[in-house]
Write the structure tokens for this entry.
Amino acid sequence: MVRQIFVKVAMALYRGAQRLGITYNEVNILVYYLLIPLTWTIMVDFLIGIPMTTSALLLVWTGIRIGTVGRFSEWCDWAFMRSVDLLNYFNRWGGNYVLNSVVICVVVPVFIYIALIVMLMTM
């Protein structure tokens, strides 16, 4: 089941990259380091009542885009490989890249979404 989830997510990212005309690494970084965190920051900002975390995230991404003009794809390749290194770091506790990817990139975000949604519903 873990491998199936991994393949489905990877294929969705691959298809998204194809449709957008960008690389798999670029779409992976944009989804996991911009889009998912952006949805979280929007929810957090709604909870705290000020757009502080969303503004901070967008400021960081503005700096990244300015700093990587003409080489954003290269930067995404670098960031993707650091992400692979992080996922492989957890192998020391008996995991593997596929398992670590599903836990950290699918299960953890789902739990964060659930927690944020519950907090928003109880406001």
Notes: DSSP finds five helices and no strands in the chain. The radius of gyration is 16 Å.
